[in-house]
Amino acid sequence: PTGANVDGFDRVDATHFYMSFNGSVIVPGIAGTVADEDVVYYNAGTWSLFFDGSANGIGGTDLDAISYVGGSLYFSTDDTDIPPGAGGSGDDADIYRWNGGSSYTRIHDASALSWSTTNVDGFVRVDATHFYISYGSDTSVPVIGTVQDEDIMYYNAGVWSVYFDGTAVGLTGGDLDVDAFDLP
Fold it and tell me: Could you tell me where the beta strands, DSSP code E, fall in the chain?
């Protein structure tokens, strides 16, 4: 969509993917405006609304990182709002799961796990103990120390490592942050 700022992306293959946006946009083939709490699906030239955040109780909360795995949508938000039923106190670094019905679960509580509580703006889930993550601003990651907002971190069953060093490939400008990504 013209003028869209993508803040969540999950690639299935070259002609199929899920996407969320930072702000409201007009998406061809979808009636009305797609809001920043929604997720759309692109299927070989046809767009559809996959997840309607307002209809599912999280209206007004920007989904800032998405990963669709095994029939569940995993996401982070850009604020401290908590999806219905997830409980606890919210953080923009927490990761939630929507089961495709009416249930939300907090999968990773950043504060309780002593992770950085800096906004998560990119997330790819592999399984419960393996995932990739990027942050909205420079932050400190356990053991590694400071990482930049153009980096992608890998979490491997409790061990953090740098998967992609954006600085090493020239992503050093203030507007060159990794904001959404997927892996082959």
Answer: 6-13, 16-21, 25-26, 33-34, 39-43, 46-51, 63-69, 72-77, 95-98, 104-108, 120-127, 130-135, 139-141, 145-147, 152-156, 159-164
